[in-house]
Amino acid sequence: MKLSLGKWLLPLYSALALIFLMVPIGYTFIFSFNDSLKSNIAWRGFTFDKWLNVCAVQNGAVCQAFGNSLLIGVVATVVATALGTMIAIAIVRYRFRFRSKISLLLFLPMATPEVVLGAGLAAQFLSVGVPKDMLTIILAHIMFCISFVVVTVKARVASLDPALEEAGRDLYGSPGQVFLRVTFPLLLPGIMAAALLSFALSFDDFIITNFNSGSVTTFPKYIYISAARGIPAEANVIASAVFIFALVLVVTTQVSGAVRAKRLARQI
Fold first, then answer.
1. What percentage of the chain reaches a pLDDT higher than 90?
2. Which of 2, 68, 69, 94 could be disulfide-bonded to 219 (CB atoms 3.0-4.6 Å)?
């Protein structure tokens, strides 16, 4: 019996790659239960205290940093998704001057290294006299998140069938009604994907945030600062909770989508 090299080599490689990616996450989750003092490097014993008193360390500094990241991520995501969706629709559906140049400019924040982008934004805020605080972080995040929203929603707009909107107009629907009842529901999966991507990029960003944050501390910045003296186990707790929430959200979405597909198949 002949053995195909690809039949076992590709699954083995995939399994090893998955294990390699999951090892840091597993380490973070396990050490969130460590009965540590100042440093969370050596295992000292199992405890639930870190999960029950997550905001007790450093007068709640880790929870404050996490709250700042959530606030910045939500505001930046909402604004960037709204603006990026309108820009994507305009670029795909309309013809105007400098259309191709605007499309090129929208890709620049994605291609520019974050160090260059963060330093440039910091210099711009300094030249106009804007103090670095929460507002400058939000503006910086909106700026680089818009590009990802435009690219994501643009692909969804380009794939829409114009006949569906024409059918809505044939049924005497106004432009607003056609958009709200036909176009927007069809664009919603792409918009939601762009919003989730924007939030993930904003919440995870450190380099651009570090250049434009001033005295404001976000969760990635807190992790970086704490690394010198030892990251507390409470930070592992928050990171583990975020991962578990994202995992539950993905699984719920997949299961609900499968159930909906089966229900539609039975109706057909």
1. 35
2. 69
Which whole-number Å values give the CA distances from 232 to 50, 101, 125, 129, 146, in the listed order?
9, 48, 33, 36, 34
Three-class SS of 1-59: CCCCHHHHHHHHHHHHHHHHHHHHHHHHHHHHHECCCCCCCCCCCECCHHHHCCCCHHH
Tokens of 146: 């818009």
pLDDT at position 4 is 66
Chain segment 134-160, per-residue pLDDT in tens: 999 999 999 999 999 999 999 888 888
Token pair 């299961």 in the structure block, residue: 255
Cα 162 → chain centroid? 30
The per-residue pLDDT of the chain, averaged, comes to 87
CB distance 215 to 64 below 8 Å: no
Neighbours of 82 (CB within 10 A): 14
Rounded to whole angstroms, how far apart are CA atoms 155 and 85?
11
The residue among 267 and 248 whose pLDDT is bigger is 248
